[in-house]
Predict the 3D structure of the following.
Amino acid sequence: MKDVGGSHDTGVGVLRVQSVHKAFGENAVLRGVSLDVDDHEVVTLIGASGSGKSTLLRCVDLLETIDSGSILLDGTDISWPGFNANEVRRKVGIVFQSFNLFPHLTVLENITLAPRKVLGHPRKQAEEEGSSLLQRFGLADRAAEYPDRLSGGQQQRVAIVRALAMQPKIMLFDEITSALDPELVGEVLDVIRELKDAGLTMILATHEMSFAREIATRVAFLDQGVVAELGEPDQLFGNPQEARTQQFLARVHKAGRI
Amino acid sequence: MTLVTDPARETVIRKKRRRDLLIASLSTVVVFGAAVVVILQSPGWPAVKESFLNPVDARRAFPSLVDGFWLTLKLFLTAEPVVLLVALLIAVLRGLTAPILAPLRIVATLYTDIVRGIPTILLIFLFGFGIPALNLQGVTNEPLFWGWAALVVSYSAYVSEVFRAGLESVHPSQAAAARALGLNRYQGLRHVVLPQATRRVIPPLLNDFISLQKDTALVSFLGPIELMSAAAIYANSKFNYTPYIVASLFFILLTVPMTRYADWIAARQRQRSQSSGAGL
């Protein structure tokens, strides 16, 4: 299968995924994915369900172990068995589709837990930094609430802030709007827009095609476990080169999702 | 917000509620009344009344029962915290995956399997008579201590299973979220999984507490005079069983508030999960 992921010439990116394979039992989900991501880049991953978008993100955060290939973060291969995953997770933040906030902690406690326990920040410092992050994303009045008192959109924004509080070098977003009611999607996407303006390096797996086009510096179309096409958003959406990309976009168009 | 009401509907609802209350009261009076009549008309009632419900004997036995009650209370209050600690440790050990902890994991599993299979009364005999018989240097032969230890061992096995069920009920995505934030396994367990698990198992834990309170009576088989044996001593010397009734009342005094509290907590949790299910 042709893989165009590594062909984008960017030198040594902050993240280099090189022909990664990952199978769950008999089910090969990733079949040689390659993708380079530069500093301050926003790469969106599009593709049908089961094309490997989520698995790729989970592999980068070492929540899954890969079968072969390599993942370089700042030039270090983090994918080798036994590599200290906690070191990776200080640099890489991930936000899940299902928020996964800690229900027994308040919003502020959710955000300050990792900075205090992992980075060793004193409570006061963690709370000050957490509060200013909440302020920045319009959640300051929610600091003392428990997650189940928040709307889905607010919960997802808190989850993003929680990941940001660890000051990651790169953020991964796994279908973060898929579990939200349509009217709540906008507030979450606004957060991503702001993060892009702030220059954060991001990879987003998403079904929101117009957003994927708007926010991305590059778009990767995943199909059957490989990057089938990679390009600038206007090129990939406006003039896709690969037959598979054209078919996928046609289906999405037909479903009214663009 | 203004509530829209319909007086006609409310009248019907109020009428129905009043009728339900009347039926409930009537049936209660009839059933309980019948039971009382059956008991009072039974041929043995005067004898039972004399030997089980004698106010004079109740008063005479009372001071020794109070002493027994204190011992029961002490047994329970000292055993319970230790049970909680040991049980939690066992439950956590059983859930750990690090290879070096394999022996501990095996011991923890064997412990729960074996101890849960042995009736508490047997454990109390084995500890209370067996260990002192070994004549070990520097080990107490105090039956009260070994009875207490047997209770702790027995209940730790049960309670550890309650904890384990709680730990397993926390969705794996919570542990994954903790790991994704850079917390190590221990930190994830300590700050994310355990607090949620313990909250969920409070009602079944309280149930086991109640059971432990009652089982402190089993220690009397080793000789210490707790509430039940205090009653037995009086009953056997005076041929009057009233102290048993008084002892039962003591136990009820201890367990009923606990039962109500367990129910209250369970109801509150149910309500909370429902209100959060509705969203905002």
